[in-house]
Amino acid sequence: MYGINCTGLMPVFRRLFAGRAVIVMFHEIQRDFRRELMTGTSVDLFKYSLEWLQRHEWKIVSLDECLEALSRNKPNAPRYAVITFDDGYRDLRSAALPLLEQNNAPFLVYVPTAALTRNMKSWWIGLREVFRRENQVTIDPMDAKFACSDFRSKRAGLNAAIQWVHKDYRRAALLEHTFHRYGISLPALNDAYFLNERELQALSRHPLASIGAHTTSHAALSTLDPSFARAELEDNRKYLETLLEFPVRHLAYPYGGAGACGPREYRLAEQAGFSTAVTTRKGHLGDVNLNPFALPRIGVGCHLEARMSFEANVSGVHAAAQALLFQRGAAVL
After folding, report:
1. In the 8-state DSSP scheme, what is residue 257?
2. Domains of the chain from N-terminus onward
3. What is the C-alpha to C-alpha distance for residues 35 and 56, in angstroms, rounded to an integer?
4. Of 161, 207, 235, 274, which residue is the least packed, with the fewest Cβ within 10 Å?
5. Taking residues 234-243, what's their average pLDDT?
6. What string of DSSP letters covers 66-124?
7. How far apart are CA 294 and CA 253, in angstroms?
């Protein structure tokens, strides 16, 4: 990626490999990136991402406008970018919104009911708070102890614990004792980090904003029985529509990787009345076989190489390189 930038070939690669549209995914937009253990996107990187898209002629539009434009399949149409945020963090209003307004960039926020009602089991926020506060951390379900007296060890310990949960989302429930041991209140953290109902109502009236669903409890849908999974979708949609007094047609699956959502969840989303659903799987939007209930997204990372990673993913270079490696491996076999 660095070599491509240095040789000035990025515009060529973008023309060759980029799709017609891309959905970009953010979570937290953090002013104090280091204090939050680099778990979201820094304000500087968010600003850079918006400016990069504009500079390289990606037209930032709403999801509805993007999909409508793709369906028309006009020749020489611009490439489109859709900006999305998961979970409804409070820093969307304080840190991201001014930059979105400066760039006249529409955006879509996917909000779980439990974030607004403050009873979400936001285990990732709880783990971050534990590692921020403590220099010694014991997580019994992991059978792990962490010595974490400096920034690097705190980040390493937090990442190890998060990855442990991601391997089996049912493990999140096992962290309750850990949070109790370290005096962590998830409702209090929810109140600190997530928008409340009044704030979401105000945001929903912003001319650039759209609001989407993100399930009731932010559960990994694949771990639930079909009836419970469908209730997660339908109840969240009804709650948001009652609160905001307009239709909610777009959905983001929590934990939208292959292990957390698949064909069953796509069918449930359609049955629940949504028009689209986004995953966390990398990819661009094209013209062929576009499943509106399995839309890919490009997540903007938090690591030090995030700028180059963002450019490579949006430009299609990363996907092209992976396809080439796969073809070479198949040829060897």
Report:
1. S
2. 2-38+53-113+194-332 (3.20.20.370), 123-187 (no CATH)
3. 32
4. 207
5. 98
6. HHHHHHHT-TTPPEEEEEEEES-BTHIIIIIHHHHHHTT--EEEEE-HHHHHT----HH
7. 9
